[in-house]
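Extended Data, panel c. Modelled sequence:
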Amino acid sequence: MDLQEKAVNALVSNGFSKEKIIMALPSKTGNVGDYMAMLWMPPTPDHIKIQNITKVEEVKPEGVIGLWKGVSKEDIETIPLE
């Protein structure tokens, strides 16, 4: 949860609306044209990768990734966590 707060603060500081930030669920993906923010690089992330969803294919959910397995995206920018 500490990382979640850091990430939200970093996104808001870079112009993203706090009201539009939602946590990802393995059972529900974003849509084409939506932005996605991913803490990177696990296990000790130091920045956020901002990506644009370019394609969403129907797939059988797998593990923690779930339906996101069928999501194609392109990198837009990175934001440092600190």
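The longest strand covers residues 47-56. This feature is highlighted in the accompanying rendering.
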